[in-house]
Design goal:
By secondary structure, the protein is mainly α. It has one domain. The protein is about 85% helix and about 0% strand. InterPro entries: ABC2_TM. It is found in: Membrane.
Length: about 130
């Protein structure tokens, strides 16, 4: 959780207030968006894999005993992950977005944060 603001501070100044006035600079912005989304997504995916492997035997045991089914287990994982994902994404995106200076429109910022949330949550849930 404390790594993500650090990554925002690392990624943000790399392209600090870089204008998008040429093809090379636009490609740099696109590369930063891709790299930051993929980096955070893969970190979450790898962090969840270890926990999922450890909980697998418990899930099978509880499922065979008819304590709960796959839907309730999946929903409990989802409800547990959503607040964490929202928190770390707000931290990371807020730092990176304003340091890079993509757009000073609040709607654009919220849209970027929403897309970042969708990608990161998809990466996290693939690991589960």
């Amino acid at each position: 959780m404390f790594l993500f603001p650090r990554f925002g501070v690392i990624f943000g100044p790399t392209f600090y207030q870089l204008e998008a006035d040429s093809v090379k600079r636009i490609n740099s912005h696109i590369g930063l968006i891709y790299n930051s989304m993929d980096f955070i997504g893969v970190i979450n995916l790898m962090a969840v894999l270890e926990v999922t492997c450890a909980e697998r035997a418990v899930f099978y045991r509880e499922h065979m005993s008819n304590y709960y089914g796959p839907l309730s287990y999946s929903l409990s994982l989802w409800f547990a992950e959503v607040p964490y994902l929202i928190f770390v994404i707000v931290l990371f995106v807020t730092i990176e977005y304003w340091l890079v200076g993509w757009s000073y429109n609040g709607g654009d910022f919220l849209f970027f944060m929403f897309v970042f949330y969708l990608y990161t949550s998809a990466s996290t849930y693939v690991g589960q």
